[in-house]
Amino acid sequence: MVFSNRKSLMNNQLYIQIPLDASYFLKSEFQIDRLLDFCDWSSPASDNDVRQAIELMVPTGCSKELIRIGGSGDGAYLLPDDLTAIDACFSPGISTLVNFELQLAEDFGIPSYLCDASVDCDQLQLNPEKQFFCRKWLGSFDGDDTQSLDQWVLGSDHADSENLLLQMDIEGAEYRSLLSASDSVLKRFRIVVVEFHMLPFLQSSRFLNTSFLPVLHKLLRRFDCVHAHANNRLPLVDLAGYMVPQVIELSFYRKAENQGPKNPWSSHSLDVVNVPTLPPVVLGAPWV
User: Fold this and answer.
1) pLDDT value of position 94
2) pLDDT score recorded for residue 73
3) Which domains are seen in the chain, by residue range?
4) Which of 41, 133, 207, 244 sits CB 3.0–4.6 Å from 37 for a disulfide?
């Protein structure tokens, strides 16, 4: 396939031909999705559908106490206090923040696999015996600079583990990455923490029904949402009558482990703002 771009140049026609193959569309799927979600062809989602989607992000409660891992700023998360059972952590989208993985190693002896194509290993102060870095993006396919969650996990030394931890902050690529992950790999994770981006896009019926809802339903079949924290980098937006953060951190705990009496969820004393120079974002209805 050839894409032709015609451009007028001094009364002449300049033709630029770009050969396209499957890899072009795979690598561009994120941009293509954004275009399709918000072009004139995409219908708006109904208020009722938007509200029901938002309500899926309300935690159900956790049978364990929550602990904070990763320090006192951005890149730290609240998890169920069940880390002694974790064999390894998979952390895509680290940038240069590795406090989370370093604390896992120091306090619990947990090794971490890290990937991010935006940084060099030399920029990171890693323990070579506990942190294993791969300079790739996490996505929905396997290529030169992109890998799927299945390939990453099954190609690791912990491919047979049934007690893994996933900590994912990949700036919107979480939807395609999780949608493409097999159930046989997802069920290996005991705890999952995901930072969900682009929540204002829930107003697009295409994004709502082909990205957000399939991912949330896929996770909630096997996991309970046990904690929610609004990232204060961006202000709240009004979506179908709910004031919703544009970015939210959700912690999930495998249903098989989240048994017995559960502590009802509420804003937690261990929560801190992601950006200290900005005002906090407080979750209201339907979370409170």
Assistant:
1) 86
2) 83
3) 2-37 (no CATH), 47-254 (3.40.50)
4) 207
